[in-house]
Amino acid sequence: GGSVAIFGALRRLTLVLPQPAAVRSRPGRVWRWRNLLVSFAHSVLAGLWALFSLWHSPELLSDIQDGYSVPGHLLVCFSSGYFIHDTLDIIFNHQSRSSWEYLVHHAMAISAFVSLIVTGRFLVAAVLLLLVEVSNIFLTVRMLLKMSNVPSPALYEANKYINLVMYFAFRLAPQAYLTWYFLRYVEVQGQGAFLTANLLLLDAMILMYFSRLLRSDFFPSLRKGSAGRDVDGEKFLID
């Protein structure tokens, strides 16, 4: 609850922050800009928090199922609050149609994280998954740069390659390791079965997002037409 309140306050703070002309000129972008700024704040805080949790207690990596640390537990609570806040933000601002994939992702994350908080098991797996927020820092910067039409292609180009490296290091690698671990060592029943199913669905979503990222930034000629565009004429998940 405290986490939801924190992100609600951050969202209000975005009201007083300056917006680029390219954002102000298109009403559909204003909500998205504010939403991305809150997402950026979560990524910075949660990404650094996840790194600190693993640095502070490296022994956790030897017990993914039952390892426990207070920083890790609080991190999962903190990020659960963000996903709840972002879900409400999307729904109450009538962005469900253009952001439905985020709603699916958030529902998976919230349900999985709540089960971890209640049982105290697999918290280490959640911390490893939240390393993805390090990657999301650069992914969000990428989207903010595109929306603001920053006249510095060099900045976008540099972030593009950093984003790709971070995607491999903090999104694909932890996800691949956890998928292997769950399929090999975790019982396929009860909470283990539920988390494994969530993990496999997340694998599919991550690979889909990765293919979109490659097409958008590295192989633009392979991008499809206008199918699936939102009311502002842009694909949120691609652009």
Automatic annotation (TrEMBL):
<feature type="domain" description="TLC">
    <location>
        <begin position="28"/>
        <end position="222"/>
    </location>
</feature>
<feature type="transmembrane region" description="Helical">
    <location>
        <begin position="195"/>
        <end position="214"/>
    </location>
</feature>
<keyword id="KW-0472">Membrane</keyword>
<dbReference type="GO" id="GO:0055091">
    <property type="term" value="P:phospholipid homeostasis"/>
</dbReference>
<feature type="transmembrane region" description="Helical">
    <location>
        <begin position="165"/>
        <end position="183"/>
    </location>
</feature>
<keyword id="KW-0812">Transmembrane</keyword>
<dbReference type="InterPro" id="IPR050846">
    <property type="entry name" value="TLCD"/>
</dbReference>
<dbReference type="InterPro" id="IPR006634">
    <property type="entry name" value="TLC-dom"/>
</dbReference>
<feature type="transmembrane region" description="Helical">
    <location>
        <begin position="124"/>
        <end position="145"/>
    </location>
</feature>
<protein>
    <submittedName>
        <fullName>TLCD1 protein</fullName>
    </submittedName>
</protein>
<dbReference type="GO" id="GO:0071709">
    <property type="term" value="P:membrane assembly"/>
</dbReference>
<dbReference type="GO" id="GO:0007009">
    <property type="term" value="P:plasma membrane organization"/>
</dbReference>
<feature type="transmembrane region" description="Helical">
    <location>
        <begin position="36"/>
        <end position="56"/>
    </location>
</feature>
<dbReference type="Pfam" id="PF03798">
    <property type="entry name" value="TRAM_LAG1_CLN8"/>
</dbReference>
<dbReference type="GO" id="GO:0005886">
    <property type="term" value="C:plasma membrane"/>
</dbReference>
<keyword id="KW-1133">Transmembrane helix</keyword>
<dbReference type="GO" id="GO:0097035">
    <property type="term" value="P:regulation of membrane lipid distribution"/>
</dbReference>
